[in-house]
Amino acid sequence: MEQSVAVFGEALVDDFSSQRVVGGAPFNLARHLAGFGLPVTMVTRIGDDDNGALIRNEFTRFRLADAGLQTGAGEPTGSVHVEVGSDGSHRFTIVPDQAYDRIDGVAALAAVQAAQPGIFCFGTLAQRDPVSRAALHGLLEQTEAVRFLDLNLRAGHVDEAIVFDSLQQADIVKVNEEELQQLFKWYCHTCPDTVNMECISVDTECRAMMHNFSLSALVVTMGARGALYLSADGAHLADHGTGSSECFVDSVGAGDAFNAVFLLGRLRGWTMERTLARANAFAAASCGYAGAVPQDLSCYARWLDQWSREPVVA
Coiled coil where (predicted)? Predict the structure, then answer.
C-alpha cells in the first residue's frame, strides 16, 4: 500500500467580490496530491458558513477524506480579500482570526496518527496564532514522517522566530527565490545575487544554512527558469523547466503544483532529475488555467499516463 501524506494548514477562500475561489497553499497541495491518487489527510479548520461549504465541496470533488477537517461553530472560514487594479495587478488582504487559526491539537493528532503518513507537510501562515501553532508542534513531536516545509512567507503574518523554529523542525525545505534571499539576510554571512542560482556563492550559503538547520534537502523554485535541488549528501541538480504555459492565464498556485509532483516523485521512487522535470512541467501547465487547481480532474490521469510512457533511463 502506498504511503500517505498529511498536510497541515489553511484552507481558505479568495474573495474577488465578483467571485469566490477556494485556495490556501496547503489545501492546493492536498488537492493536487489527491488528484494524483495519493491517500491524503488534510488537517485544517473551517466555519459552518458559506465559505466553509465551498471548502467541503472541494473535499468531496477531490475525494479527500475528511478525518482531519474540523468545523468550529460560529468561527469564520479563512478568507483573503483580493482587489484587482486597473493594470491587472492584485492586492491581497489576508483576514486575521480565522477558523484555521484555531486548529484543535487533540483532534488533529488523532487524524494524523490514524493515517501514519510517510510525509508530513506544513507551512508558516497557519502558525500565526498560538493555538494552531501548538497543534502543529504536537503533531511534529509525534510523527516519524519526513517533514516537508513550504516556507510560503506572507508579509505581516509570520516573523523570524516562527521561521527559525520551522526550519529546525523540517527535513526538506522548499522556497522561492525571494524567500531564499530573506533566509540569506537572516541566517548567512553574505546575500549573493540569485540571478545565477548555480554560482558557487549561492551553493556555499545554501549549504551552510542546510548544515546549521540539519536539513536533508533544499528546493528552490525559480518560476519560468525552473528549480534547483540541493541535498546534504552533495547533490546539486537544476532543471530549467519548459518555460511558462503556452496559454498563460495566471501563476496562482504554481508552487503548490510543483510541490505536489515533487512529493509524488519521492513517494514513487523517481530519480531526482525526472522528478524536477515533471514537477516543472506540471507547474508550468498550471499557469494555463485560472486558479490554483484544475476544474477538469481527468488531467491528473493524463499526466500519469504521459509519465508512464516516458522511456526508462538506465
Answer: none
Mark which of 145, 170, 195 sits at the end of a domain.
Answer: 170
Is residue 215 assigned to a domain? Answer: yes
Q: Which are the contacts of 11, defined by CB distance < 8 A and separation ≥ 6? A: 22, 24, 26, 27, 42, 44, 46, 55, 58, 77, 78, 100
Residue 237's domain comprises: 208-307
HSE, CB side, 13 Å, CA atoms: give it for residue 34: 23
Number of domains composing the chain: 2
pLDDT along the chain (314 residues), means of 10: 92 89 96 98 98 98 97 96 71 93 98 98 97 98 97 91 98 96 92 80 94 98 93 94 65 90 97 96 88 92 96 69
Residues 26 and 166 in one domain: yes
Q: List the one residue out of 286, 299, 296, 231 whose CA is nearest residue 256.
A: 286
Identify whether 195 is part of a domain.
no
Grid cell for residue 313: 533511463
Place of cell 545554501: 206
pLDDT of 155: 85
* Domain containing residue 81: CATH number: 3.40.1190.20
3-state helix, strand, coil in the chain (%, to 5): 40, 20, 35
What is the predicted pLDDT for the residue at 248?
75
3-state secondary structure of 80: strand
Cell of 165: 523554529
- pLDDT, residue 89, reads 63
Q: Which of 140, 151, 78 is nearest to 112 (CA)?
A: 140
**Strand order of the sheet with strand 90-94?**
20-23, 12-15, 78-84, 90-94
Q: Does a structural domain hold residue 179? A: no
Alpha helix ranges (H) inside 18-146: 25-35, 50-61, 105-115, 130-142
Q: The whole model's pTM is what? A: 0.95
